[in-house]
Amino acid sequence: METQKKIALITGANRGLGLEIARQLGNKGMIVLVGARNEMAGVAAVEKLSQQGIVAHFLPLDITKAESIAAAVNQVKNQFGWLDVLVNNAARLPVKPEDQHNPSDISQELLAEYMDINFMAQVATTQAFLPLIRLSSAGRIVNMSSTIGSVTLTSEPLHQNGPKPARLAYAAAKAAFNMFTVTLAKELVGTGIKVNAADPGLTQTQVGQERPNANTVEQGAKPAVWLSCLDDDGPTGCFFTHWLNHETVNPW
Ligand SMILES: NC(=O)c1ccc[n+]([C@@H]2O[C@H](COP(=O)([O-])OP(=O)(O)OC[C@H]3O[C@@H](n4cnc5c(N)ncnc54)[C@H](OP(=O)(O)O)[C@@H]3O)[C@@H](O)[C@H]2O)c1
């Protein structure tokens, strides 16, 4: 067993918000495990973090593959023995032309693909790491969500999600992920483990890079970082965003 420092696994941490969350958690003194499905990209991210004085390790992890998840759990178990923080960040973002669709014409294939990566795989990853998180003195699970997954906001005519009925696949998968957040938080009440959803807001990663009003990655990472470091009296089963500050509650 390597350490008594907090250990945080961030899935999809080779780029975008995942890498920034890893950087910010590393700067808070946590050992960060950079989950990535691509070895070269994962190792490059670890090198970048290490150059900034952060203790980081590459963890091969494709969240859609059961054998990859099982191998990652074993690696963390053997190297550290437990896990303090799991940030379920990896996802498929709606950046391709075919991602723009109406609910009336979306294909079953695209719907299934989004549900698989952005919902089913998140549940599988969390279930697999939960035994290690139960061994932490203060387990924190942070699920990266979006206002696009909020039924309340989407139903408001004037909200940015309101008039545009597109991207059902991404929205439905994030809404399902929100429900997982709430139900798991309830199941784990009394264990000390907190489960919350973080909304980074539109952020300048691949998806928001040409939008000048989008958050910087530093801003977008803040709700997830705050939720990863919650005190024992912090909230669970909630949905936080950056709008006013990172402690602003989103409607489900
Ligand atoms: N950016 C925004 O405006 C925004 C807004 C609201 C919510 N979010 C949420 O914030 C999170 C991060 O978004 P982002 O903008 O940083 O996305 P991104 O730049 O597209 O990065 C996505 C990450 O997920 C990884 N990934 C995808 N499928 C994977 C799989 N099967 N196994 C392991 N890793 C996988 C990617 O790896 P590869 O490099 O190998 O593809 C990449 O590292 C997502 O959950 C997203 O839904 C983002």
Could you write a compact summary of the structure shown?
The protein has helices at 16-27, 39-51, 66-79, 108-134, 151-154, 168-187, 217-228; strands at residues 7-10, 31-36, 56-60, 85-88, 140-144, 194-199, 239-241, 248-249. The chain is of the alpha/beta class and 252 residues long. Strand 6 (194-199), helix 7 and strand 7 form a beta-alpha-beta unit.
Question: Which key features would you list for this structure?
Answer:
40% helix; alpha/beta; binds NADP nicotinamide-adenine-dinucleotide phosphate; 252 residues; 8-stranded mixed beta sheet; Rossmann fold; globular; 7 helices
Order of helices and strands: EHEHEHEHEHHEHEE
Average predicted confidence as pLDDT? 92
- Overall body shape: globular
- Radius of gyration, in Å, reads 17 Å
- Provide the CATH topology: Rossmann fold
The portion of residues assigned to helices is 40-55%
Say which molecules are bound, naming each kind only once.
NADP nicotinamide-adenine-dinucleotide phosphate
Instruction: Name the CATH class.
Output: Alpha Beta
Structural class: alpha/beta
CATH architecture classification name: 3-Layer(aba) Sandwich
CATH homologous superfamily identity: NAD(P)-binding Rossmann-like Domain
Question: What would your notes on this structure say?
Answer:
- The protein has 252 residues and is an alpha/beta fold.
- The chain has one domain (7-96, 115-148, 170-249): NAD(P)-binding Rossmann-like Domain (Rossmann fold, 3-Layer(aba) Sandwich), CATH 3.40.50.
- 40% of the residues lie in helices and 14% in strands.
- The protein is built from 7 helices and 8 strands; from the N terminus they run E-H-E-H-E-H-E-H-E-H-H-E-H-E-E.
- It has helices at residues 16-27, 39-51, 66-79, 108-134, 151-154, 168-187, 217-228, and strands spanning 7-10, 31-36, 56-60, 85-88, 140-144, 194-199, 239-241, 248-249.
- The chain has an 8-stranded mixed sheet, with helices on both faces.
- The chain is globular and about 50 Å long.
- The model has no long low-confidence stretch (mean pLDDT 92).
- The chain binds NADP nicotinamide-adenine-dinucleotide phosphate (NAP).
- NADP nicotinamide-adenine-dinucleotide phosphate is lined by residues 11-12, 14-18, 37-38, 41, 61-64, 89-93, 117, 144, 146, 200, 202-203, 205-208.
- NADP nicotinamide-adenine-dinucleotide phosphate binds at residues 11-12, 14-18, 37-38, 41, 61-64, 89-93, 117, 144, 146, 200, 202-203, 205-208.
